User: Which sequence fits this backbone?
């Protein structure tokens, strides 16, 4: 599994603000860095298939050898994590995981219980997500994404709201899972520590290696 | 499909208004084949101008409409300017939402019962202060100047404008602006008026226009509280429309055109006044007067205004309730000599029938309005389409100016007097309110939740059903409740389209206005207020109950 950005250019009012031509290997993390407003999040929105209409994108995006450039968000199979966990507040923890779990899985309860255990949350399925700690919520969000069997991950400042200790823990958890599943990851961040921990190439939005 | 929803919603709003206007303009110039009018003529206008009360009725419409709008706006701004950010203000704002569910007619009846010569105020002051041992022969309700009518409109429009203002405050950056003004040494009220008011007004301009148009042409409140000889123009038009002499229909149509012109003219003048105030106000704001001392007077006045409105509505409703259970009640006794269920028992069959019809119409109209609003909002994405400004059309064109035309079409097509047609016409007025209530929370929803759901493989329809709608359940419930209340409150649409065969608790209550039977009015007005209130309470409780184990779904 790999994610290929082929001459991907994002224009605003005709001026390029993002230009990348790279392949992200399975289990590799491409870190995109830059100050706020440089277009990092726009890049992720574009990859997720939710580019706001004021922007235009050129180039092509391939995932796993399949072109996804014009696919709608739900058909891309790219999991997303934001700095907020965005757990659905109306569903229980298990409900959130079930929402992510692909249809057709036979033992749904078992799969959810396994995921909870893997995240150190065994027995917490019935809980209201609002009653979990920040670190627990972040792990539920990640497990929810992994249960949807994504072919790649997009991280939008995913660790920036966690405190230092939790951040290191969570990084290890996310990158470890990505490697274990062989998922290509694109991470945008303004924190060099995130990029160092990821271990992969670090570029700015115009593709210059940092 | 969603795009179709947007156009369906807009068509639903604009078409009936335009068709209705056409159905009024044609007979105003003598053309209405169904009634034998096949030639264009100016006779309807001659008839209208020949009516001796015309000048007076027109003047009443303008004075009561403009006065009540200006008063409501001034009171609203005063209350917010003087008290925003305090604990009592937070309390007042919470008490507001249910007041919006209260039909105009019920509030008007309550006020009438309170201020009438035999009302609670007179009873409380008699005989020790007034010397009255029988109700004095004073024309307080239905006074020739229309002051009671103005009061009745103000007590309902201030809560409405307050809610609109509250919704506009965050966008006007009111808290920080006010803090800066205070830091520069301005008094509370003066600072707010100079810094926040202009921005807030720009946001609530359309609701203010709606209030002006409504106040100038209202029928039900004017039937209850307004002058009678002559009445306001709108009431007179209705009288002609329902007159057994069908030839007066033409004159009524001409009157409806005149009413529309009056409203358009008043709106134009109001706009002009806005410019004038803006120009003067800019100089005033730059003048630097701090007005610190003014707070000592204006803050108590603002509190007094809010309290007076709350008491007028609250005591009025209590009065209705007491009258509905009253047996013998002598003047000036504060309470009835005898209580009983007789007033209710005598009406039970009719009550059951009217409650069922009202609820069916309101339920249908609100559900359809909610569905169309969701479809229209879903189409627009993050930015509201400009064309949605049309949503205000049915709220600004006076009902009396286009509903008679719509009623003619319904009659010609044989559709009048059915539950479905009445529901459809209610929808024209329910839809704008439902849409406006739903639009803000709909757009405030965190779109990232939708993106996350989509990235988990959920198709757009599933994102809507499984994520967005449940997360917005509370807003949907409130919008439904507002729609329900709006439908229950409709008087003219039910009266004109229902053609006597479909009636609601509101038509029944208002029909009693000219009777002196306070007990009966009490019964019907209580039902009229209780029905939307009950739905409102249910709609506020339901989401809290459903999401009782979900802290993230609580407000604030």
Assistant:
């Amino acid at each position: 599994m790999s994610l290929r950005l082929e001459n991907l250019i994002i224009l605003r009012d005709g001026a390029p603000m993002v230009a990348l031509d790279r392949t992200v290997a399975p289990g590799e993390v491409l870190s995109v860095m830059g100050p706020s407003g440089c277009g990092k999040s726009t890049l992720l929105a574009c990859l997720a298939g939710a580019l706001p209409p004021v922007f235009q994108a050129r180039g092509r995006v391939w995932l796993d050898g399949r072109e996804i450039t014009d696919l709608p968000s739900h058909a891309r199979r790219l999991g997303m994590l934001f700095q907020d966990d965005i757990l659905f507040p109306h569903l229980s923890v298990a409900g959130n995981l079930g929402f992510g779990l692909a249809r057709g899985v036979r033992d749904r309860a078992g799969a959810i219980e396994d995921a909870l255990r893997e995240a150190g949350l065994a027995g917490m399925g019935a809980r209201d997500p609002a009653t979990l700690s920040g670190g627990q919520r972040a792990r539920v969000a990640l497990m929810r994404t992994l249960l949807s069997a994504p072919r790649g991950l997009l991280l939008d400042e995913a660790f920036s709201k966690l405190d230092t200790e939790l951040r290191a823990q969570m990084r290890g958890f996310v990158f470890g899972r990505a490697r274990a599943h062989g998922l290509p990851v694109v991470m945008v961040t303004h924190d060099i520590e995130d990029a160092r921990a990821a271990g992969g190439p670090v570029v700015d939005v115009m593709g210059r290696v940092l | 499909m969603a795009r179709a929803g947007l156009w369906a919603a807009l068509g639903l709003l604009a078409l009936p208004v335009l068709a209705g206007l056409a159905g009024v303009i044609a007979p105003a110039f003598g053309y209405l084949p169904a009634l034998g009018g096949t030639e264009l003529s100016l006779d309807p206008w001659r008839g209208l101008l020949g009516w001796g009360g015309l000048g007076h009725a027109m003047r009443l419409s303008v004075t009561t409409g403009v006065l009540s709008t200006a008063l409501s706006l001034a009171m609203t701004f005063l209350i917010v300017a003087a008290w925003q950010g305090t604990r009592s203000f937070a309390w007042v704002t919470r008490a507001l939402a249910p007041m919006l569910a209260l039909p105009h007619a019920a509030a008007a009846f309550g006020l009438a019962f309170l201020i009438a010569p035999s009302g609670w105020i007179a009873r409380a002051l008699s005989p020790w202060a007034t010397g009255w041992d029988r109700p004095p022969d004073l024309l307080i309700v239905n006074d020739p100047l229309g002051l009671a009518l103005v009061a009745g409109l103000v007590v309902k429009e201030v809560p409405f404008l307050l809610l609109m203002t509250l919704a506009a405050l965050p966008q006007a950056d009111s808290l920080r602006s006010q803090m800066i003004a205070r830091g520069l040494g301005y008094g509370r009220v003066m600072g707010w008026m100079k810094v926040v008011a202009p921005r807030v007004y720009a946001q609530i301009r359309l609701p203010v226009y709606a209030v002006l148009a409504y106040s100038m042409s209202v029928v039900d409140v004017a039937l209850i509280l307004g002058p009678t000889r002559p009445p306001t123009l709108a009431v007179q038009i209705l009288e002609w429309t329902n007159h057994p002499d069908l030839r007066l229909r033409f004159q009524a149509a001409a009157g409806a055109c005149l009413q529309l012109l009056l409203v358009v003219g008043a709106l134009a003048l109001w706009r002009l006044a806005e410019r004038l105030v803006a120009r003067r106000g800019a100089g005033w704001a730059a003048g630097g007067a701090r007005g610190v001392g003014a707070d000592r007077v204006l803050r108590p006045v603002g509190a007094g205004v809010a309290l007076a409105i709350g008491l007028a509505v609250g005591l009025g409703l209590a009065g209705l309730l007491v009258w509905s259970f009253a047996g013998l009640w002598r003047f000036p006794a504060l309470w009835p000599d005898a209580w009983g269920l007789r007033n209710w028992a005598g009406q039970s069959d009719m009550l059951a029938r009217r409650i069922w019809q009202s609820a069916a119409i309101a339920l249908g109209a609100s559900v359809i309005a909610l569905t169309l609003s969701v479809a229209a909002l879903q189409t627009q994405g993050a930015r509201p389409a400009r064309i949605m400004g049309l949503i205000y059309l049915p709220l600004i064109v006076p009902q009396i100016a286009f509903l008679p035309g719509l009623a003619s079409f319904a009659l010609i097509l044989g559709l009048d007097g059915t539950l479905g047609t009445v529901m459809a016409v209610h929808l024209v007025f329910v839809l704008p309110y439902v849409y406006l209530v739903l639009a803000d929370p709909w757009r405030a929803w965190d779109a990232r939740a939708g993106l996350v759901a989509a990235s988990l493989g959920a198709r757009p329809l599933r994102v809507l059903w499984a994520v967005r709608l449940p997360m917005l359940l509370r807003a949907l419930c409130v919008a439904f409740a507002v729609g329900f209340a709006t439908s229950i409150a409709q008087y003219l649409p039910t009266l004109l389209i229902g053609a006597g065969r479909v009636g609601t608790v509101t038509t029944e209550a208002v029909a009693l206005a000219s009777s002196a039977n306070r007990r009966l009015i009490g019964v019907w007005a209580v039902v009229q207020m209780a029905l939307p209130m009950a739905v409102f309470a249910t709609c506020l409780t339901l989401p809290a109950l459903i999401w009782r184990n979900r802290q993230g779904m609580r407000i604030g």
